[in-house]
Amino acid sequence: MGASDLLYRLYERSLVRELGDAPMPQHVGVILDGNRRFARERGLADVAEGHLAGAQRIEPFLGWCAELGIPIVTLWLLSTDNLDRGDEVAPLLRIIEDAVHDLACDESNAERGWRFTVVGALDLLPAETRRRLQEAEEATAHHRGMRVQVAVGYGGRQEITDALRSLLLDAAGRGRSLEQIAAELRPEDIGDHLYTTGLPDPDLIIRTSGEVRLSGFLLWQSAHSEFHFCDAYWPDFRRVDFLRALREYAQRTRRYGR
User: Fold this and answer.
1) If we measure between CA atoms, which residue out of 121, 152, 123, 124 comes closest to residue 136?
2) I want to staple 156 with a disulfide (CB 3.0 to 4.6 A). Which of 191, 216, 224, 248 is the partner?
3) Phi, psi of 252, rounded to the nearest 5 degrees
4) What is the Cα 139 distance to its own chain's centre?
């Protein structure tokens, strides 16, 4: 082990000790950003190689979450805006399909018990992508371990639009007038129709690559979330980067808008 590796290990252990009995987030959301810049800055032949490197980082990250007892993780793998990226989209979709399907259906996951669910405007995705993601969901539907929610073809504005559409159609189906809906509408009613219905809102949202914005990720659900922005590109995201985010989260006093 070289000197740099030794220092890394010592620093990692120091961060773990610092966390001690600190409160852990129960739901961590991650914006996996920087794959394309990772590929370009390293002179890789194709940006797809950056996406592949990012996909290979997912399993280690989920392992870190499981080790720390974090029960819910949401990973933003593809936005609705990304669907307009021309020739880049098809190989990226294949990489996402393979990553999610392999993690969910691999024999080792029978022991881990991670449960995978998919959220997003899935009707915008190719039929083969929907099929393989659905297979991952079905293969783990009975699992009771860590919940891994993958956001594919996801956009926060689209989600809220779809939630309102679902709410209105549901209310109309029960014979309620528009005036009745408007008079009685509560935030909870909209929340009941979001893609993520049934899961608690994220406590901590992490974005990699140095960008300091949400770009539409979990717009409704993140009202009271804590945020951590990390300079590392997603393929370079290390366990110490994650531990730093958790340390920062533990040091904050959460006020939930009060």
Assistant:
1) 152
2) 216
3) -90, 150
4) 20
Give the type of residue at 145: G
The residues, any chain, with a CB within 8 Å of residue 232's CB and separated by 6 or more, are 34, 208, 209, 238, 241
- Alpha-carbon span 79 to 159, nearest angstrom: 11
* Active-site residue set: 33, 82
What backbone phi and psi angles, to 5 degrees, belong to 205?
-120, 130
127-136 CB burial, b ≥16 within 10 A, e <16 = eebbebbebb
Length of the chain: 258
Domain locations along the chain: 23-155+202-251
The whole model's pTM is what?
0.94
* Residues 148, 151: Cα–Cα separation, whole Å: 10
Those residues whose C-beta lies under 8 Å from the C-beta of residue 157, and which sit 6 or more positions away, are: 216, 219
3-state secondary structure of 75: strand
pLDDT tens digit sequence for 31-87? 999 999 999 999 999 999 999 999 999 999 999 999 999 999 999 999 999 898 888
- Tokens representing 135 are 């297979």
